Amino acid sequence: MEECSYLEVDVNGQEIFLVDKKITASFSNKFTELFRKKVSDRIKNFKVIFNDFPGGAKGFELIARFCYNNGRIEITPSNIFILNSAAIFMEMSKEISETTPNLIYQTEKSLLGINFWTWSEMLSALKQCQDLYPFMKSSTIYEKFNDSFVERLSWRSVTGSYTSSDGSSIQVSCDTNSIDSEKNRPTWWFNDLLFLNIDFIDKIVKTMLTQNFDHVKISKFLFNYQRSKTLVATRAEKRKITKLLIDLLSSLNANSISIKGLFDVFRAASNLRIPKRCVTKLENLIGSMMDQATIDDLIVRPSREKHYAYDVDLISRLVKFFLLEKGTRVFSSRLKKVGSLIDLYVAEVAPDYYLKPSKFAALAMALPDSARDCFDGLYRAIDIYLKFHPDLQEEQKLRVCCALNHDKLSPEALEHLAENLSFSLRRDARKFNIISGNEKNGLNYEGRQSRMINSEKLSNKIQRKSTIVTNVGLRNSANVGSLSTLCS
């Protein structure tokens, strides 16, 4: 009995093809090996089932056309990666003839014309890469395309539109130099890549890093991607995006990253319960840039389980990370910026009824004395805290007050302090020794000890001065507000 020359091929359960075994085997090593196996003579119909064919029914149809056309097919940006991944899957490395190379080689050679592809064609090919990536890990043209795609991102363009093969509309850009207002816009491609999943964003960004791509553009792109994608993402997707975003941002030059953007990422991450490793990495990054922050950046609400209004613990941790930068260039000037910022922050959080004196004092004393040329700002914050927390015990008041370096108070602040009933004037060395042994091992202990000695001396000075002040207490409520300008 003559052997049946046709073969049924079920492709991913999508479609069944009937193909000639000899024709397909002449181009595919996979089919050749399959037919080489002994098959029972009683089997007249032979059927092959593929459950994971690259590109599905469309991919197999392209392979069949190639085979039936004697090893020729038009290779375009819209099918190059389907053909390549399908050819690798079918082991189509057979040399057809001296003038007609195998399909894998043909697709690789076709990529040499990538510089002539339009931006829409590049995006179409990129979408294919993403869909077919599990099949393309061993493909040489993927890395080449990825490199070329990142290079294309430096090209100038204007906004246009592109519709993918599945009918979905994607916002894209068209290559042109005709509109001056758009051609130099560095972020022209940001929205074009929003269709990419986070795994492929990882691959694109890592390619950018190997090509020394502008880190400022990379960071802006990542922030834009995170904001846009999380609007419609599930909680699990948001968590995955945020985790990878933190890892990628950590690999960039810190000077290229917006600290406001980092705080936005932190606020998003705090509600997603991402791993502590990622949180610490993000806090380390923010802390290293603390001198670039504003008071608005620092206003972070704590988790819902907390009663207090501000996440003071976070800011204390950020300050510790910043102090690890000691020894770097121009650290002294950066330190003074952070000192001014912390003074503003402690004044902002001081009215919080639930803010414990230990936490307030820890943040007030987190920086060395060299961070402040003048302590009037910190004095104002302490004054506010004591007025909003009138029920503090004497030792709690002293814990807060010893954050001051009285030698760095202006004459106006000293005069105000002498009349200020919120501050205890009955200070002595014993009471200032309330700092525990654990605290002695903490940051800036030497500075705190110096403040205690100075405070004891100043206490006597203030007491003498207070006896000649006719109106004990604040002259008027405006005096408190005026303290903010004492060192200006």
Sequence-ordered SSE layout with sheet pairings:
Layout: E1 6-11, E2 15-20, H1 21-25, H2 29-36, E3 46-50, H3 56-68, H4 80-89, H5 103-110, H6 119-136, H7 140-152, E4 157-163, E5 169-175, H8 180-183, H9 198-210, H10 215-229, H11 235-250, H12 259-270, H13 276-288, H14 295-298, H15 312-323, H16 331-349, H17 357-364, H18 376-388, H19 394-401, H20 411-418, H21 429-432, H22 437-440, H23 445-466, H24 478-482
Parallel strand pairs: 1-3
Antiparallel strand pairs: 1-2, 4-5
Helix pairs in contact: 3-4, 4-5, 4-6, 6-7, 9-11, 10-11, 11-13, 12-13, 13-15, 15-17, 16-18, 17-19
List keywords for this structure.
488 residues; mainly alpha; three-stranded mixed beta sheet; 52% helix; elongated; disordered C terminus
Query: Which H/E pattern describes the elements?
Result: EEHHEHHHHHEEHHHHHHHHHHHHHHHHH
Average residue-wise pLDDT: 81
* Share of helix, binned: 40-55%
* Computed CA radius of gyration, to the nearest angstrom: 34 Å
Q: What about the largest sheet?
A: 3 strands, mixed
Structural class: mainly alpha
> Which strands sit side by side, in order, in the main sheet?
2-1-3
Poorly predicted parts: 157-183, 425-443, 445-450, 464-488
- Our count of helices gives 24
Number of strands: 5
Q: What does the overall shape look like?
A: elongated
Distance from N terminus to C terminus (CA atoms, Å) equals: 104 Å
Proportion of residues in β-strands? 5-15%
